[in-house]
Design brief:
MetI-like fold, mainly alpha, about 350 residues
Length: about 350
Amino acid sequence: MEFDFAAEQPKFLMLMYGLIAFVAVVGGLLLLLDVVPAWFARRREAQLVAASASGAPLPRRRKPREGVFALFFLLPTLLLLTIGLVVPAIRTTLLSFMDAGSNDWVGLQNYGWMFSEDSIIRVLLNTLIWVLLVPLVATGFGLLYAVMVDKARFEAVAKSLIFLPMAISFVGASIIWKFVYAYRGDDQDQIGLLNQIVVSLGGEPKQWLLESPLNTFLLIVIMVWIQAGFAMVVLSAAIKAIPADIVEAARLDGTTPWQMFWRITMPSIRPALIVVVVTLSIATLKVFDIVRTATNGNYDTSVIANEMYNQAFRYGQNGQGSALAVFLFVLVIPIVIYQIRNLRQQREG
């Protein structure tokens, strides 16, 4: 089969136009960021030179101009946020009150469907299990790793190996763990690590990802494996930031390692623990890749983000998919508000 450049010419033109537009926009922004500050600096320098030569008092900076100057730099970000976040959020909210084809208003019907359909209730329960387990378990393992490798002989190597899963995409990690959970018939050699261990211990191989609710917990293991490295890095940095004089004073008082951990380490790293738990909670609420890659949401493993995709893009139910998206957004808001309040209290304290 030969590639026909003539037939694909419109696509290449679209690609070329996109590249030109990208270069123009980015290049224009970079040019403005270079030219405008330089122009203000030259103008300010000229004013200072003129004032110095005439003996007049030095001109003071006027705050309104500084505000306009700051607004100039914020405009591109505000524009992108409006186009990429605010407008889609408003549009999705409106679609959640409309029917599947986004033609007629149906009020709260899509939200009623969400809490009355057994399959969707299962999705919500799965998401709740994810949010309860992943942040706590991943943070617990991260804290354990941070304490164990702190000031160890090969600390840098150990941290690199523990953090390595973070460098793998969720899809890649899911494919790796699908091989771990892989199943073959009783009369065949097992290629899945988990089934091979079971067989070597005299057990029978199982189709792990088909058994509910066990499969949900096995998918959670993938998320914990990825995120424990992130928790370890943040908490390890917090542990190293504990003042040495506090640690030395505790040791001189005869504090045991267990007392040191609960009375010195834990209170000192509490802000870091909150940051890790909040960050992992938000990431877990939005989990999609792992479920999509490992089970495609089948066998009672679907979560909100995966079901939102199915309803909107596979089943053509724009209203129901939008309702799930809005509900997911609402779940994230309290966590974000809590984190903002916590950071504000830390600054004031």
